Backbone:
């Protein structure tokens, strides 16, 4: 039987550091207001002229360097994003060109903030089927491009970034141990960019109404997240025949520190096992769990052989979990 070994990780970090004080125009003492509600202190935005493919390319190169691998060894590139460079072609093909992965094929995957988890599940399927030997998945988003900067309920939450992971086929039982991915289309309206596709093409009127920007019903999404995360933890660990107490680390989607506080109380899992960077990066959407994974592998917090759970949740509504042996 084939397994998907985690070979390497990499990050693409935007250059512009945006402190909470940037949003003083929206609310008095924005730093205290944002930190007390979300735990976010700062985030990063791409520079003018940069796009999702730029961050994805940087993350891809970082992962390849870490692996000591040539891009020509890749069989497939999946870019997991809800902010592609354009509606067509796939951003993955731009990344393929940028890194010289001439032997790979590439495509994009959109499950909003769950995208990287969905992409990792797909990579695992490709490897276990024998279709591919080596797959790179890149979670990358530039939400600064689609935010309504007059909406204090959403625009301070997000940052830009990219996190890449490389999986390779192995006969050893390591890497991805178990996965679940799910969605509930009944909640699709809670997170959307209304005028961004064929359903409601952009017009001067939709632009004037800011319908081309990101929209989220924050309170309902908060309730969804605090309900679904404990269920992901319970379901994935049960499927693998282990207890949550056996996990060395948990990487949740980096949405809001208050969500994590709720989860630790609901599950009884110690807060120190939840790995976070949202205080410094905000919600980087599809990139969030990849950035945390890379940062903690490089720092040594995640050690070879550690057993961890990577969690995603977001628009669709969508959610999933990847149980992985580092």
Residues:
């Amino acid at each position: 039987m084939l397994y998907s070994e985690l070979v390497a990780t990499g990050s693409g970090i935007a250059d512009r550091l945006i402190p909470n004080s940037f949003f003083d125009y929206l609310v008095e003492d924005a730093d205290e207001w944002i930190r007390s509600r979300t735990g976010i202190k700062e985030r990063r935005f791409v520079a003018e002229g940069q796009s999702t493919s730029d961050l994805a390319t940087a993350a891809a190169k970082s992962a390849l360097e870490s692996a000591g691998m040539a891009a020509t060894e890749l069989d497939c590139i999946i870019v997991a994003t809800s902010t592609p460079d354009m509606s067509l072609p796939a951003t993955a093909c731009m990344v393929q060109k940028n890194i010289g992965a001439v032997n790979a094929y590439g495509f994009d995957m959109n499950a909003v903030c769950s995208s990287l988890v969905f992409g990792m599940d797909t990579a695992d399927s490709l490897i276990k089927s024998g279709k591919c030997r080596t797959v790179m998945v890149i979670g990358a988003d530039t939400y600064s491009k689609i935010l309504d900067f007059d909406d204090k309920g959403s625009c301070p939450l997000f940052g830009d970034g990219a996190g890449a992971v490389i999986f390779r086929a192995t006969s050893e039982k390591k890497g991805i141990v178990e996965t679940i991915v799910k969605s509930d289309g009944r909640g699709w309206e809670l997170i959307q960019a209304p005028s961004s596709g064929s359903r409601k093409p952009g017009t001067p009127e939709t632009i004037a109404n800011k319908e081309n920007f990101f929209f989220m019903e924050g309170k309902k999404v908060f309730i969804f997240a605090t309900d679904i995360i404990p269920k992901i933890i319970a379901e994935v660990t049960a499927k693998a025949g282990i207890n949550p107490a056996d996990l060395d680390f948990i990487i949740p989607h980096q949405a809001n520190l208050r969500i994590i506080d709720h989860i630790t109380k609901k599950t009884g899992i110690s807060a120190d096992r939840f790995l976070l960077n949202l205080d410094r990066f905000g919600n980087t959407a599809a990139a969030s769990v990849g950035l945390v994974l890379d940062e903690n592998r490089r720092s040594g917090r995640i050690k070879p052989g550690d057993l961890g759970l990577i969690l995603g949740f977001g628009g669709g509504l969508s959610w999933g979990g990847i149980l992985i042996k580092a």
Remarks:
- The first strand starts at residue 3 and ends at 13.
- The radius of gyration is 19 Å.
- The first helix runs from residue 30 to 38.
